[in-house]
Structure formats: C-alpha cells, structure tokens
Amino acid sequence: MATEGFVDDENLEAIVTRIEQKSRKIESLLKQSKPVEALKTALEGSPLKTRDERCKSAIWIVVHRAIMAIKDVDAMFSSLDPEYYDTLMKYLYRGLATGDRPTCDQCLKIHEKLTEKAGLGCILRSLADTVNTV
Amino acid sequence: MAAVAIHQFAQCITCHAWSPDQSMVAFCPNNHEVHIYKLFGEKWERVHVLQKHDQIVSGIDWSVRSNKIVTVSHDRNSYVWNQEASEWVPTLVILRLNRAALCVQWCPKENKFAVGSGAKTVCICYYEKENNWWVSKLIRKKHNSSVTSVAWHPNNILLATTSTDGKCRVFSTFIKGVDSRESGASSSSNLKFGEQIAQLDLSFTWAFGVRWSPSGNTLAYAGHNSMIYFIEDVGSSPSAQNVALRDLPLRDILFVSEKLVIGVGFDCNPMVFTADETGLWSFVKFLDEKKIAPSSSKYGSQFSEAFGKLYGQSKPAINSDTVESSRPRGGAHENCISCIVPLRKPGDTIVRRFSTSGLDGKVVIWELDGHH
C-alpha cells in the first residue's frame, strides 16, 4: 500500500520525448477530424507521476489543444471512457484558471456536461487530490 | 425501505448513542452538554442533562453490557459516567491531550476505550482497580494530523484509525494486565502496545469513518474525495478496492453484515454498498426514497443556483431550471448526516435497524427489510 513513486529527474528526458510524440499524434488526429480520439490520446497517462511543473505545462498545452478542438460535446461523451472523467475534470479546472475567454467558454461548456455525467463526486476528486495535480 | 422514525431533538447534533435496551438516547446538541431523552409511549422526554464538559462534546459511546457512558470533548477531557440510582455520576479521565478529543469508542469487551484527538495521538484508556481510576496510554507515533475516527477489531486488541493526513492505520493496543495473550490473534508477534500493524495510503485527502466488518476480515473507510475504500486481509496481504462515489463525500459508515455497508454523509441520504459473490463492492442505491421532484434542477436544489450562475457566464440565456437553494431536499435529513449507530437486538449477528444523526438536529431510525 505504499505511495506510488514519483519519477525522478533523469527520467524527465523520457517524459519530454513522450509528450512530443503525443503532440505529433494529436496534430495528425485533428487533421483527420478526430477530435475525440485526440482528446483520449492527450488524457492517456495523465496525471503524470512527476512534480516537475514544466512537464505538466507541456502536457497541458497538448490537452488544451485537444479540448479546444472539440465541437460536439455530447458526441465526445458517448465515446469517452468513464475512467478519463476525473482526469478531464482536473484539466477543465486548469483551463478555467487561465482566465482566457475562449478557453473558459469551452471548459465551462464541457464542465456542465461532465458534471451531469459524472456527478459532484468527480468535482470533489479533482479538488481534493492535491498530490496528483495537472 | 425508508425511515421508520424521525425525531427533531435540537438545532444541530454532533453525535449520539443509545442505551443498552434502546429506550434512551444520549446526544450532544452542539454545546457542552449531553442530553438523554427517554421514550414514554409516543413522546420523547428529557430525563438527564450531563453537564461537565466546557466545550462541544464530540464523541459519546454507551456500553451495552456495563451500561457506562463515555464522553469526549474539545476541552481535551473525557468522562466516564456511571448510573447510580437516578443520577449519572462522572469520573474524569485524564487523557493528557493538548488538543481537542474528536471521537471515542468502547472496545468489544468494554474494558478499554479509544479516543482520537487533534493532537495527532490516540488515547487507549483502561480501568485500574487498585486506584479506582481510568488510566490513559497514548499512541503518539505515526499520525501526521488529527485522528478523526477509531474502530475496534472484534479481537479487542487491534484498533484502526483514520486521520486528516489521509491514511488509515491499524495498531495493536495490547496492555499487560488488561488483555490476555490469546492464540486467536492473527498477528501475535506484534502484540506490543502502539505497534503499527498496517498503514493504508489510498486516499490523498482526509479520511473519516473507519469500521471493521463483523468478522474483522474487512476494513472500510471513507475519503473526503468522494471515495470509499474496502480492504480485505489487512494483517497478511491487504487487497483494496476503491469505490468512487457519484456525489458528495461520506462522514461515517456502518457494516450491517459482512457484505452490506451503509455510508452517510453530505448527501443527507444513507447510501447502500454491497459486495457480490466475487467480493467486488459497489454502490447499490440511496436508502431514502423521497427524492427531489424531476421538474427541478438536475444537480439538486443545493447547487442548482450556483451552477446556473456559473454556466450563465458562458451562455447568453440563464438556465431556466434554476430553483432557490433554500428549498428542503424532501428526505428524512435536511443537512449533513455525521453519525450512524447500529441498533442491535441481543443475539442478532446482522444489524436490522440503525439510527443516524446530523447537523439538522434530527435522529432518524431506519429499518432494513427482508431482502437485504
């Protein structure tokens, strides 16, 4: 029952490489008009087991790109696995924290539907977890 | 299946406990007193007021066989009350705490009780006949924050605790002269007092309401992140299940049987959890059938106004389903349920009735029907 170990600095290189790979995959999925696939790819493997803020920011940029590309929120939920709900909620709050109008508009739109689907418990988990932050 | 009795005793209740024959209930009405009410026919009447504490009484437990009430308070003290004729006589227990006491529970044999405190310690108190007083032994190590809840294992030695540092721990409380070294104890090599048997690091947030199953095989506790954790075989090879709740967090739980758990908390409605044949736990339903009418907001009257304002920022039209947040939810409890207590008939292995008390000042008695 020990806490899962966080990645140390030597493995940051590996994380950065993974993020770059993800970014390329997401760009290609968006070009093929598959925004939901892109979002799934972005959310996979998050939250990262690292405390390094630069890695988190790098992943956020990639997730943000995928979130902003979503046009049909209902269609997104019909193909997004519930295991991603808690992570998505954390990223929505990160988006809302930016204060940027288009980002907040999009995040609020998704937040409304996500709360309907996942319930208040999802919000609680994103707020209460101060260890696995995005 | 719903509530069989609802009593409004005060504006707010912190904790409650029943007398051995369940004719009287003792509770703290969010002040320094403990009120004891007795049911005369259909009416509840106050028969005793226990006034000794200086601050809020945070925990009450009433022992079934020895008929003793133990109370703990934010004033860092504990009293054991004995009934002599028609009076309750207090005996001070010097806990040696420098912070508030938060919870208390008699052990199954009723020769010890455990107190969790804000001083990051657990006090195990036992009676010393020679000096006619209660002695407190402290478990000082391991906890990094307030101990919110304590639970005794059926073997009278192991104690589980939850803390606001997010962890659930199991300790041995073996005291020489009070406990006997039985071969039944599973971890007989760790019988030293204060020895930590296990530490469960499942929740990243505050943990509350730890309880053992009747056999002691399963341990369950609630996390403030709207999760409930079930752990099997704590002593040997712990295996945990994390059940995510859809709604608000729980504050206290109760094992009705090996496979049925009731959780209570901020949803103001008891939640039922069961384990199937493979041992997989899941949420079944809310106990209280009275739900909000479907025409009102999707999120429940408490939050709809807030959500309406939040989503109204991005949309030009305000959500037309907004209702006032002060409308009562239509269930037995109107505010957070903070305490759940079993009402066992002597000889029953399964709990069929239990009571809940909450911040709305009500004590509600629930009965489970046959098919559970």
TrEMBL record, chain A:
Pfam families: P16-Arc (PF04699). One of its GO terms (cellular component) is Arp2/3 protein complex. It is found in: Cell projection; Cytoplasm, Cytoskeleton. GO terms for biological process: Arp2/3 complex-mediated actin nucleation; regulation of actin filament polymerization. Its main location: other. It comes from the Eukaryota. Keywords: Cell projection, Cytoplasm, Cytoskeleton. GO terms for molecular function: protein-macromolecule adaptor activity. Belongs to the ARPC5 family. Functions as component of the Arp2/3 complex which is involved in regulation of actin polymerization and together with an activating nucleation-promoting factor (NPF) mediates the formation of branched actin networks. Arp2/3 complex plays a critical role in the control of cell morphogenesis via the modulation of cell polarity development. Functions as a component of the Arp2/3 complex which is involved in regulation of actin polymerization and together with an activating nucleation-promoting factor (NPF) mediates the formation of branched actin networks. Arp2/3 complex plays a critical role in the control of cell morphogenesis via the modulation of cell polarity development. Component of the Arp2/3 complex composed of ARP2, ARP3, ARPC1/p41-ARC, ARPC2/p34-ARC, ARPC3/p21-ARC, ARPC4/p20-ARC and ARPC5/p16-ARC. This is Actin-related protein 2/3 complex subunit 5. It comes from Musa acuminata subsp. malaccensis. The lineage of its organism: Eukaryota, Viridiplantae, Streptophyta, Embryophyta, Tracheophyta.
TrEMBL record, chain B:
It holds the Pfam family WD40. SMART domains: WD40. Keywords: Actin-binding, Cytoplasm, Cytoskeleton, Repeat, WD repeat. It comes from the Eukaryota. Its main location: cytoplasm. It is found in: Cytoplasm, Cytoskeleton. One of its GO terms (biological process) is Arp2/3 complex-mediated actin nucleation. One of its GO terms (molecular function) is actin filament binding. GO terms for cellular component: Arp2/3 protein complex. WD repeats lie at residues 50-91, 140-172. Belongs to the WD repeat ARPC1 family. Functions as component of the Arp2/3 complex which is involved in regulation of actin polymerization and together with an activating nucleation-promoting factor (NPF) mediates the formation of branched actin networks. PANTHER family: ACTIN-RELATED PROTEIN 2/3 COMPLEX SUBUNIT 1, ACTIN-RELATED PROTEIN 2_3 COMPLEX SUBUNIT. Component of the Arp2/3 complex composed of ARP2, ARP3, ARPC1/p41-ARC, ARPC2/p34-ARC, ARPC3/p21-ARC, ARPC4/p20-ARC and ARPC5/p16-ARC. This is Actin-related protein 2/3 complex subunit. The lineage of its organism: Eukaryota, Viridiplantae, Streptophyta, Embryophyta, Tracheophyta.
